[in-house]
Amino acid sequence: MNLTIPYDTPLMMEVDLSAHILVVEDEVAIQEMIALNLTQAGHEPQLASSGMQALEQIQHLLPDLILVDWMLPGMSGLELVRRLRAHQRTQRVPIIMLTARVDESDKLLGLESGADDYITKPFSIRELNARIKAVLRRRAPQMTEDLVTFKGLSLDPATHRVHANQQEITLGPTEFKLLHFFLTHPERVYSRTQILDHVWGDHVFIEERTVDVHIRRLRSALEPSGADSLLQTIRGAGYRLTAQP
Ligand code: CA
Predict the structure, then answer these.
(1) Interval between CA 98 and ligand 1 midpoint (Å)
(2) What architecture (CATH level 2) is domain 148-241?
(3) pLDDT tens-digit profile of 27-86?
(4) CA of 102 to the centre of ligand 1 (A)
(5) Distance from the CA of 43 to the center of ligand 1, in angstroms?
(6) For 148-156, which contacts have Cβ atoms below 8 Å and span 24 or more sequence positions?
(7) pLDDT tens across 218-229, in order?
(8) Which of the chain's ends, N or C, has fewer CB atoms near its CB within 10 Å?
């Protein structure tokens, strides 16, 4: 059976693989240099010059990744990272610290405070981009363009193609993101609220039932290949992609 339906351009454009990156840095020249390069790398930078400003901005939009300068006026970068890690909403946001310090004990302090990685100034843009990609891959694999495979399912974000047991599957943009999320987080149960946060984005006001609607669409797209059984409903808890259906 041929399941291939030509996919249209809006489908490709709606899949957002660029990251919202908050840059917390008080030196304007460095701030602008980083922002320019993030934009060129396809990301969407937001800028803050202090820890307080960063916290304020995060209330409105939770970034996908935060770059924090160690030496900031007022609240230090280290203190900002500690605060972010202490709150449930920001606990898991990937953080990279930027610093002029080269002392090994400072580096440890930065990592102990909850930063995921550490870049010493001066750094090359190539290094910054590589670190961002590595941290996103580790902390938010659904943000990267890496091909993901699981039990006969494969999803390629770069070409936007999905295969299930050798059959090509065509998915709507939301189902594509949903499957991408599950494929990068297999064997774990996610509640509807968690799925909304991860797939639809933070601060969205969408009914939890919407998740069920898109899960149903995803399952029926996968059904002809038999891969729909991998996506389990866990009563009272949520959904899980599992190799042992
Ligand atoms: Ca600084």
Answers:
(1) 9
(2) Orthogonal Bundle (1.10)
(3) 999 999 999 999 988 899 999 999 999 999 999 888 999 999 998 999 999 999 999 999
(4) 15
(5) 22
(6) 148/180, 148/183, 148/184, 149/183, 150/183, 150/186, 150/230, 150/241, 150/243, 151/227, 151/230, 151/243, 152/225, 152/227, 153/179, 153/183, 153/222, 153/227, 153/230, 155/179, 155/180, 155/183
(7) 999 999 999 999
(8) N
